[in-house]
Design goal:
Elements lengths: L11 H10 L7 E6 L4 H4 L6 E9 L2 H4 L24 H11 L12 H9 L4 H9 L2 H11 L15 E9 L2 E5 L7 E5 L5 H16 L5 E7 L1
Antiparallel strand pairs: 1-6, 2-3, 2-6, 3-4, 4-5
Helix pairs in contact: 1-7
Length: 222
């Protein structure tokens, strides 16, 4: 039977604490709520924005979105498969962090520091399999899942909400979802327009899901 974890809450304090527990130096970065997709609400988010985590409802339409197999991917785009049930929040946070190592300070010898060094040359599938055997990560995830303002759903409870990460690599906006065939290229972006471009991508998701049951959190320098 595939391994399953309790899901994380869409709570910036929980995600910030989790990032610190796996190796980000305390006070270096934080997750921040994005309260809406309008320009005036996006302007409230501290800059620079390094990555965005999106929680959205799974539908047939969202499941049908797959990568363009002909698109070129930057060599330093770090992507891993999700093989553990309900671990999408953890995978999304790790995608945010592993794709911003030049801007984020890691504790030497921490889990995340070791994971990056051990898996840098692995395939996305091998990285996912490697994670299954990492007890330190499972413990950190369990600790984060017990935090927050709501009672976490049970391990075997059916969840129809899903976390993904959005990152800027090589001037392209990539959606990183460990359940998909690979990274999804959503077009050009820049450091200055990354949050706005991410909001435009989410607006398209809102349209195809016909739902406003979304949550966005930006990874920012503290």
């Amino acid at each position: 039977m595939p391994m399953r974890w309790k899901p994380l809450e869409a709570n910036p304090e929980v995600l910030t604490s989790f990032a610190s527990s796996i190796g980000v130096k305390k006070g270096d970065v934080m997750f921040q709520d994005v309260y809406g997709l309008e320009e005036e609400l996006l302007a409230m988010v501290p800059t620079p924005v390094l990555a965005v985590v999106v929680l959205y409802p799974l539908t047939d339409a969202t499941e049908a979105i797959q990568p363009n197999s002909t698109g070129q991917k930057p060599e330093d785009l770090f992507y891993m498969k999700q093989t553990i049930g309900n671990a999408c929040g953890t995978i999304a946070v790790m995608h945010c962090l592993t794709n911003n190592t030049e801007q984020i300070r890691l504790e030497e010898g921490s889990f995340l520091d070791g994971f990056i060094k051990q898996t840098v040359n692995m395939s996305p599938e091998a990285r996912g399999t490697y994670l299954e055997a990492q007890g330190d990560l499972e413990s950190a995830h369990a600790g984060a899942a017990s935090e927050g303002d709501t009672i976490a759903p049970g391990v075997d409870e059916e969840i129809n909400l899903h976390f993904v990460a959005l990152v800027n690599k090589g001037g392209r906006l990539f959606e990183l979802d460990g359940r998909k065939a690979g990274p999804i290229d959503h077009g050009p972006t820049s450091d200055e327009t990354f949050l706005q471009d991410s909001a435009e991508m989410v607006k398209k998701l809102v349209q195809i899901t016909n739902s406003y049951n979304f949550s966005l959190m930006a990874l920012c320098k503290a």
